[in-house]
Design goal:
The chain is α+β, with helices and mostly antiparallel strands. It is built from 15 helices and 7 strands. The model has no long low-confidence stretch (mean pLDDT 96).
């Protein structure tokens, strides 16, 4: 079964899925003009394969769904909504480009990366877990550990001799043992943080989706930092990735600070406070601007 999606232009599919180009092919990856990921549609899972046609100014996406059963028309429509949210196809980038036009380095980046939209994890829980995993380790190592976690605990989908995995639910991680977390390469402490968050969700003490309704990002950060092991950087990263809060700016991220220092030719290293001061000029778009800086760094632009 296939769906047709129409992103709000400008939209560059290759740029927008570049971040997945080094992903695990059994979980989520972009390669040879195709992006694929296992998504949850209610109680069902399906492999979604996305390809693009047209141009950045007139884009069209085709989505091929391979579910673990039969999808109703309503579930197919819901799958399209999920993919649109993951890739943020409805984002209108022009206000961001206008907001940074008086900032020469950022203006140049938006020209080079025109049509780049920041992706969002299917759930806030996934973004929170990933942010915990990534604490104080390199992104490359973190991606490996996240893939191990997904393979060990997530639901599997078998298609044409291949096995694909969906990110685990709170219920699947709440029952994980310290030894299982360690087998993924995670410390007992991080395993405890993840399990604690899962437990609070299951017990109804933490409503991550409900936090989306809070308009003030600072108020959401304040709630998340009440969780065991979640500091400001982890919370900022989680809401940027999981809630699409484009005003969230993880200034404590060393890679981001390095990218800012290099792009703005300030000095070899800058502090989190110095990074925030530079980011203030981007206003409500500072999280999106940070993403452009990081992607440019990864692409060698």
């Amino acid at each position: 079964m296939a769906l047709i999606l129409n992103p709000v232009p400008p939209y560059d599919f290759t740029l927008s899925t570049f971040v997945f180009s080094s992903g695990d092919p059994q979980i989520r990856r972009a390669e040879n003009g195709c992006f694929w990921q296992v998504i949850r549609i209610g109680q069902k899972i399906a492999l979604a394969e996305v390809t693009a046609e047209g141009s950045a100014g007139n884009p069209t996406l085709k989505v091929r769904l391979v579910p673990d059963g039969t999808l109703t028309p309503g579930e197919q429509d819901h799958a399209g909504t999920i993919i649109s949210r993951i890739l943020n196809l409805n984002d209108y980038l022009t206000p961001f480009y206008q907001a940074v036009r008086n900032d020469p380095p950022m203006r140049e980046l938006t020209k080079r990366l025109r049509g780049l939209k920041v992706p969002t994890t299917p759930t806030v829980f996934e973004a929170l877990v990933d942010s915990i995993v990534e604490q104080q380790i390199s992104l490359a190592v973190a991606r490996t550990l996240e893939a191990r976690l997904t393979r060990l605990f997530g639901d599997s989908l078998h298609i044409d001799g291949q096995t694909y995995y969906a990110f685990p639910t709170p219920e699947q991680l709440e029952s994980a043992t310290p030894d299982q977390f360690r087998s993924c390469g995670l410390s007992a402490m991080k395993g405890d943080y993840i399990r604690n968050a899962a437990e609070r969700i299951i017990q109804g003490e933490l409503d991550l989706d409900g936090l989306r309704n809070i308009r003030d990002s600072e108020a959401i950060i304040a709630e998340l930092t009440k969780l065991k092991g979640v500091g400001r950087w982890t919370a900022e990263l989680a809401i940027l990735r999981g809630m699409h809060r484009l005003d969230a700016f993880p200034a404590d991220d060393l890679g981001l600070r390095r990218a800012i220092a290099q792009r703005y030719q300030i000095k070899e290293k800058i502090s989190a406070d110095e990074a925030r001061k530079i980011a203030d000029q981007w206003g409500e778009w500072k999280g999106l601007a940070a993403y452009y800086l990081l992607i440019a760094d990864q692409m060698g632009i």
